[in-house]
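Journal club side-thread
Mid-discussion, someone asked how the predicted structure for our own chain would compare to the paper's figures. Pasting it here so we can look after the session.
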Amino acid sequence: MERGISLKMYYNGQIFPQTSEGVSFVCENPRDIVIPFAITYEEFKSILCQCGDNQVLKRVVNIFYRQPVLVFGGFVQFQMMNVVDEGSMQGMFSIYQQTRTQVSILELYVEFEELVEVDLPKANIDWTVYNSESEEEFEGTYHIVGPTEEVGEDDIIVESNVADVANALASQYPSREPSFMHALDVDVMNAPEFPEYINSNPVVVSDGEFVVGMEFSSRETVIAAIKDYTIRRGVDYRRKFCWVVRRYNGSHTCTRTRISQDHAKLNSDMIAEVIKPLVEADPSLKVKSIIAEVQSKFNYTTSYRKAWLAKQKAIANLFGGWEASYEALPSWFEAMVQKDPSAAVEIETAPAYQGDEVVHDVRILTRVFWSFYPCIRAFRSCKPIVQVDGTHLYEKYKGALLVAVSQDGNGNIVPLAFAVVEGETSDAWHFFLTHLRTHVVTRDGVGLISDCHDSITSTIACSNGSWEPPRAIRMFCVRHIASNFLRNFKAPYLQKLIVNMGT
């Protein structure tokens, strides 16, 4: 399966809002790009800038998405959607996932703005002062910000023009080697920075405070520790691009003023790590239980959306994501058939396209049918009836789940076969009922119970007699009839009579 998103970027061209297909993009030299699913909005804009004209310094001004819209008859029209932030970008990716079988490539029109380069003035600088031995040592550290302080963008982002000036000056005026470089003590230079901690175990402080020399196993560990500290104390921090605690002034003493019930550092990734044991024990854990767990652990009330995202990430970390799970299906079915050769599996796939070209070694799952051998064997001892029904799938990959069941002598439900298809269409029901007749329901004289769906009716009519008398008798589900009656006539007391008539 594809692990990225294929997109075509148009720029320095034209947008035609009214064509036979809706909106269309045109430019002289469109670029084909593949981006990962897990990407931020800023990273997305950075990739678009890199794929444009590399000779010009620029920034993204507008991003327009050629959004496909499915209309009656299976046709596709396109309308324009403006991508302005993280939410609209994720919405664009969601639409792409739902319509990629009809439109295999994502089309964007990007408007850039050229940035004016800064002319470097001739600087009259006393280089003797800058090369003297009195240069001060700068140490990077994390600076904890109180609730009333604001974190400006200047504390996080390094301005590119400042770096350009520094590089130009460095190349124009090479520095002289200071005198102390001729008298280096190699033993002192290689000595550990904190010798008192060289043989000690990593420090663990019970009250959650940092100490000088505290060791962390990875970058992620120190980030998690700092996030946990700031969340519990209701403060924020500035990034200084360093991950070693060199100086620590003690516990934060600012008064906590709770402006919001949420915390900026309490994101879905951190919540996912916290609730992972709960999700592993119960994957159907409710979102309100996650909100309560965060409240009890951090004393913050997180939003429903953030808690839901955290649950999805925890499930993906524990059991695998949607892409990995679908990619594992062929291997899983192959292993099932090898373990039990009497099991029945039928898979239909379609070729994957990138633009107008077929992507080799990649197929798109369209339909899959399976039945376990114990279910096949159990039907021999069941009543001669088969009930089929379908339900819609509402998760990331849409479609329908079709199921066939029967009854044993005690009236217990016995599952027979399953299928995941694109929807309750005539082709999908034909796929399911054909393989059900071939692999499971091989005897004649059975009753087929279903609702009055037109797709099932047309499939039975085209089954070459395999689901028609005398081999099978079509019957309608009384509960579906009663439900349709109540929907049309709004008479519950008459609905009960209809159910009694059919039982």
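Post-session note: The CA atoms of residues 65 and 108 lie 5 Å apart.
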